[in-house]
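Hey, I'm writing a tutorial for new members on how sequence and structure tokens pair up, and I'd like a real worked example in the thread rather than a made-up one. If someone can provide the structure for the chain below, I'll link this post from the tutorial.
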Amino acid sequence: MLRQAEHLFGDVSDKVSAAIGYLSELAEAVSERFPQVTLYFDLAELRGYEYHTGVVFAALTPAFGQAIAKGGRYDDIGKVFGRARPATGFSADLKVLSELSEVPLVKGDAIAMPAEVGLSSEQRQSLWSMQSQLRTQGERLVAQLCDSPAAKECSRQLVWQNDAWKIVPVS
């Protein structure tokens, strides 16, 4: 499709030709890294927010009738705050993603993570390390907000005891 676009629109301007070339390079890079992913390009896609400065994308699945994630490139984000930098971001509805997940949700099987507000730097660093280890082991973690109680899906929680994070039953 991109070859056809280059043939049809490549002579319109150098900017159009460069944009099609960029999409071709991007498609090649994604296909090399994720050969199982099918890519489609909609050269007429326009989003109404006008903050994107490059490629926009949507993630689709046959199991759901609309995009499960949308995002794009937006350069110079933070410029008004004195720190312009390039960025790529996306949004997704976590409820939809969890409903589409093939991993069964087992009630009471998750570990409640404490809110990071009020933790020391050492505790935060240690918590991040512990979270990474637990996720690698296949554990499901649920972040608590402020001083909220552990979610009903949590039968265990992380608590700071004797200068280390420990997993204990939810009390």
